[in-house]
Amino acid sequence: MTAGAEGRGEQATTLTYASVSGRTRRRLVFDRLIPWLLPLAFVAVLFPLFDMIFWVAQKAVPTFTLATLTETQVGFGGGLYSMILGTLILIAIGTAIATGIGIAAGFYTAEYAPPAVASFGRLAGNILAGVPAIVLGYFGYYLLVLYTNWGFTTLAGGIVLGIFMVPYVYRTTDVALTGVPPTQREAALAMGARPRQYLLRIAFPIALPTILTGIFFAMALGLGEAAPIVYTAGWSSTPITGLMQPTSFLTGAIWLFYDLPPSEGTLLTLAFQAAFLLILIVLALNVIVQLLSDRYRRRLQGLFE
Amino acid sequence: MSAESVPNPNGVALRVRHLSVRARDRAILTDISIDIPDKEVTAVIGPSGCGKTTFIRSLNRMTETTHGLTVQGSVLYRGQEEIYSPSVAPVLVRQRIGMVFQRPTVFPISVYENVAFGLRLEHQPEDRIEQEVEYSLVRAGVWEEVKKDLDRPALSLSGGQQQRICIARALAVRPRILLMDEPTASLDPVSTQRVEATLEELSREISIVMVTHSIAQAARASTRTAYFYQGRLIEEGPTEELFERPKQELTEEYVTGRFG
Predict the structure, then answer these.
(1) Does residue A283 belong to the interface with chain B, where contact is any CB pair within 8 Å?
(2) A190, B153: Cβ pair inside 8 Å?
(3) Is it true that domain A65-299 has CATH number 1.10.3720.10?
(4) Are the C-beta atoms of residues B16 and B73 closer than 8 Å to each other?
(5) Which long-range contacts does A51-58 make (Cβ < 8 Å, 24+ apart)?
């Protein structure tokens, strides 16, 4: 062997990118691209959010005053008062319905239902969550507006919003309760607790932070929906006077005013202000739920080891 | 307490006769007959899978909380009352015959509320609860360590303290019998020693049945020992006798550490 330099040179080229070709080469190059591609995807996720907030705020903030919140829209002027009121009442009805039914149904499938019924319930919940909001809107229109002869009412809007929200509350309740360590159940039963006592005294407090997250998440989604309520709650520019009256609401303002013929001026501004207000409310909901569940979870530290 | 006023002439806490437990078509326990004496610590030993945990769970009807288990035979509370009789309330059985688990199972509430749990289920008045909580913590040998932290979350205590809180919680409803499933398996040696000292103290008043995988612990902490193998009770008797002069070859092999 002439060995020496020649041998060493050969070994060196087996370690460089140039020394491989074809699929291996492509794989190596792709590996090097990953640290650049992933942050790009991350930015692509965040960009629309911040761009949207910036765009809405830019149009809404300069003209946003206290009167925007307290005055009723008349013609091309006024504020969002009647829509804020309508949205708050609609979401209150929806939340009450979704929380009551969702938590009760979650209790049932997590603790009492036979396994087959429970898994059917979970499937049904997922399907309901997947039904397009516009379909729920039409369903509500036929059932609660036409069939009942109510016409457009705030109550119908709140009920359909509740149906829209219920699968989220149900699902998180079920997941949270079934996630309670089985040893807690054993310990409670061994103390002579009955299933209902175990549920209310032990499992529910443990599951509560998760359930609250589900409720707030459902509220945030419900607040942003227009489809389930435009066909049921109708529209009325004057502030709501009763649950059997139609009402206006914030998402309706965005939907109606953005494309209305004079698509400039006050009504367009009102649409942006409604959007801005919704963004603020949803943001606040997110912050509240984060703070609440952090506080509760600290209390549960060590339970889920 | 009403349980104390019932005479117990024979000194038997639990009389087990022809007890068999099956999981569908598999036998877990076969034809167990044994008397658990009053005011003693009975250790239940045997290799993994021998049925010792199922055995103590069948003594307060906890077997019912697991799907698919069927129990045959009889378990007589204080040698007299059949716990599997249809007229017996499992809830009352579990109050008289308490249970402590392998790992501490404190609830995510305060130390005080943990110990008060069983009393609250009975809707006891607050002053009674307060007395019982303190007394139970004293009996469980953990009062001195936690008396200033009664409002702290029980989960923030050490594992050894948590386990003694669980013992106090079981004691608060004044059981006559305490079943313990490897109560020190997840504890360090110092905590283990404390729990064992607690057991000795408790056995002056109540009967304790303790599953343990540690032969040394059985020898240290029990007055009687029962050896289980493959779902059968091979031998039982005073601990000293069983360890020094076992009658069965299987027992001797196990206690001398030749297998298991």
Answers:
(1) no
(2) no
(3) yes
(4) yes
(5) A53/A279, A56/A272, A56/A275, A56/A276, A56/A279, A57/A276
Chain B CB within 8 Å of residue A207 CB? no
* Dist CA B226 CA B213 (whole Å): 12
Report the residue from A189, A190, A202 with minimal CB separation from B107: A202
Name the residue ranges covered by the structural domains of chain A: 19-61, 65-299
Amino acid letter, A278: L
B16 in contact with chain A, both atoms CB, cutoff 8 A = no
Whole-complex ipTM: 0.83
Q: What is the pLDDT along chain B (260 residues), one digit of tens a residue?
A: 444 445 555 689 999 999 999 998 899 999 999 999 999 999 999 998 899 999 999 999 999 888 789 999 999 999 889 999 999 988 889 989 999 998 899 999 999 999 999 999 989 999 999 999 999 999 888 999 999 999 999 999 998 899 999 999 999 999 999 999 999 888 888 888 888 998 988 999 999 999 998 899 999 999 999 999 999 999 999 999 999 999 988 898 888 876 65
Nearest Cα residue in chain B from A196: B121
Nearest chain B Cα to A201, which residue? B117
Q: Which among B117, B156, B171 is the top mutation candidate for probing chain A, defined by the most A β-carbons within 10 Å of its own β-carbon? A: B117
Question: CB distance B98–A303 less than 8 Å?
Answer: no
The pTM is what? 0.79
- Mind telling me how many Å the CA of A253 is from chain B's nearest CA? 46
- Domain locations in chain B? 11-246
Single-letter residue type at A34: I
Distance, CA of A180 to CA of A207 (rounded, Å): 7
* CATH class of the domain comprising B11-246: alpha beta
A200 touches chain B (CB under 8 A): no
Angstroms from A184 CA to nearest CA on chain B: 6
